[in-house]
């Protein structure tokens, strides 16, 4: 790895939690220089602008979250179990295993929906990929006889996604960990009835 590559990776890793916590608009260049210990010139020597840093930070946070869920799903043999891991991960210290700041898809989608079309597209693509992952699990579960053959997998997948993201948003907004647990109990019941 070249020094430039290492520096770029360092900037991404250090700024990812700032962007995921403060958002794009709330993150200043001073925040970036403070958290990295680098000068403005060093940051902009590796990225065209703040947008580039924000996009790479989003990708980094998304990768952290994806790896967490993939490693947990790999431990499960059943398709139902693969869906239920989301309830376990989010109830485990109310999602504390997620990247600092919470779900990057939720955070980026909320902030960028009217203000930053490029980040909105990245969040939208990530959300739809996640939904498609649920559809694949559900279809495989139907084939394996774990789920009812008449499931509308698109509807079930988007419902699961809405409950997950909604529970994270409510938990963050209210600072009440009991809310995420209650919603995850409802999601667990929903998945067990499929």
Automatic annotation (TrEMBL):
Residues 28-47 bind DNA. Gene3D superfamilies: Tetracycline Repressor, domain 2. The keyword Calcium does not apply. Residues 5-65 form the HTH tetR-type domain. InterPro entries: Homeodomain-like_sf, HTH_TetR, Tet_transcr_reg_TetR-rel_C_sf, TetR_C. One of its GO terms (molecular function) is DNA binding. Pfam families: TetR_C_13 (PF16925), TetR_N (PF00440). Keywords: DNA-binding, Transcription, Transcription regulation. PROSITE patterns: HTH_TETR_2. The keyword Transcription regulation applies. This is AcrR family transcriptional regulator.
């Amino acid at each position: 790895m070249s020094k430039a590559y290492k520096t770029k990776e360092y900037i991404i890793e250090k700024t990812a939690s700032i962007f995921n916590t403060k958002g794009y608009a709330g993150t200043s260049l001073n925040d970036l220089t403070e958290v990295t210990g680098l000068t403005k010139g060093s940051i902009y020597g590796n990225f065209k602008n703040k947008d580039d840093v924000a996009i790479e930070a989003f990708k980094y946070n998304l990768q952290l979250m994806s790896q967490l869920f993939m490693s947990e799903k790999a431990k499960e043999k059943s398709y139902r179990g693969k869906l239920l891991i989301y309830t376990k991960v989010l109830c485990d210290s109310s999602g504390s295993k997620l990247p600092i700041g919470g779900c990057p898809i939720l955070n980026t989608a909320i902030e960028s929906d009217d203000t930053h079309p490029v980040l909105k597209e990245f969040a939208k693509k990530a959300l739809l990929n996640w939904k498609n992952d649920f559809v694949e699990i559900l279809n495989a579960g139907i084939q394996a006889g774990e789920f009812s053959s008449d499931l509308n997998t698109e509807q079930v997948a988007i419902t699961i996604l809405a409950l997950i993201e909604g529970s994270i948003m409510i938990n963050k907004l209210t600072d009440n960990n009991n809310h995420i647990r209650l919603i995850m109990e409802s999601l667990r019941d929903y998945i067990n009835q499929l």
